[in-house]
Amino acid sequence: MLKAYKYRIYPNIEQAFLIEKHFGCSRFVFNWALALQNR
Question: How far, CA to CA in Å, does 16 sit from each of 12, 24, 31, 38?
Answer without folding.
Answer: 6, 12, 22, 33
